[in-house]
Write a structure and sequence with these properties.
mainly beta; five-stranded mixed beta sheet; Lipocalin; 332 residues
């Protein structure tokens, strides 16, 4: 999503939301104050993440790249989206840099032709990215609440005809508060309604019918409203990226229960990674989980890094799974 669409509230409202003004290397930013408990939640394991590797992502065209969503194919190819275009990009990692390469010839949601009269459709705002067992690519589009599916065998893209009526009560009039993440697993399509109000919508892939919706919160974390910025399916669990609370939740999607929380707050606030901006929420918008790591991609909206005002590149972080180390210790 484009953060600059937000309207900053008065400081009194920030205090109401549990935020306070602080200075980071001379830059005035908003930070979390005392936590606001949004809802009583069963105890879940909590882990602190550390970045084992950080890559700065570079793109020749477009010059500005708003990274949103993240996925790795079975052959190791990394994919992401630029939410200012409708293109799919490869990430080619070398050293501490990631080169962003357009693959629009492989996947491109087609815009509907402008009608003779009336307004044209809003510019597509592609956000979430997922791949099913058949290799079909799913992309969530935010501005018009659409889901596209690309079949690499037939090389065709279709817009999935999903009726959102059962969950419309959660939809905001703000076109920038819509689908922000998508995941596929267990025969289901999971979509993250970003905010105002944050919900996870479950669609049956066979019938393309909405089955249910639910909400999960980071246990005891500060947030005026839960912000979902991406989803990932891994090893039978749904993983939920909560941008405002700067954490990732491991969720039992059947029981709608948080199993564990992975906090990356220290990584994003590290001056080497932090961006100079006036917003209270984080900028992480892409998540991929494998058996060893959590991978996070940052959409910095072209704000510069605190440590280098000339560096406006987005970032990719590799964060080893601290829960696995605890399991190893328990087994010894």
């Amino acid at each position: 999503m484009a953060h600059h669409h937000f309207v900053l509230h008065r400081r009194s409202l920030y205090r109401w939301a549990g935020l306070r003004w602080v200075s980071l290397c001379g830059v005035s930013i908003l930070a979390e104050a005392a936590p606001l408990n949004l809802r009583a939640t069963n105890a879940a394991a909590r882990y602190e993440l550390k970045a084992a590797q950080v890559w700065r992502l570079e793109c020749q065209s477009p010059k500005r790249f708003d990274a949103s969503a993240l996925h790795r194919l079975g052959d190791g190819t990394w994919l992401t989206l630029d939410d200012k275009t409708t293109r799919l990009f490869r990430i080619e990692l070398a050293g501490d840099t990631g080169r962003l390469v357009s693959t629009e010839h492989e996947f491109l949601p087609k815009r509907t032709a402008r009608p003779p009269t009336g307004k044209a459709e809003p510019r597509p705002d592609v956000e979430g990215l997922a791949v099913d067992d058949a290799g079909r690519i799913y992309v969530a589009e935010e501005s018009q609440r659409q889901v596209f599916r690309y079949d690499p065998v037939t090389k065709t893209t279709e817009r999935l005809p999903i009726d959102w009526t059962p969950v419309k009560r959660w939809f905001s009039a703000d076109l920038n508060a819509s689908w922000e993440g998508v995941a596929v697993g267990g025969g289901k399509l999971y979509l993250a309604n970003e905010r105002s109000i944050g919900r996870i919508v479950v669609v049956d892939l066979a019938s393309l019918k909405v089955e249910r919706d639910f909400q999960v919160y980071p246990p005891g974390r500060a947030a005026a409203d839960v912000h979902y910025s991406d989803l990932c399916w891994q090893a039978g669990h749904l993983w939920v990226l909560c941008r405002e609370s700067r954490c990732v939740l491991q969720v039992d999607a059947t029981k709608e229960k948080v199993l564990a929380e992975f906090d990356y707050d220290a990584i994003e606030r590290d001056p080497q990674n932090a961006y100079a901006h006036p917003f209270p929420y984080g900028f992480v918008e892409g998540l991929f989980v494998d058996s060893d790591n959590l991978w996070l991609v940052v959409d910095n909206n072209e704000f510069p890094r605190v440590a280098d005002k000339n560096d406006r590149r987005p970032q990719l972080w590799r964060c080893p799974r601290t829960d696995l180390r605890n399991e190893e210790k328990s087994a010894q």
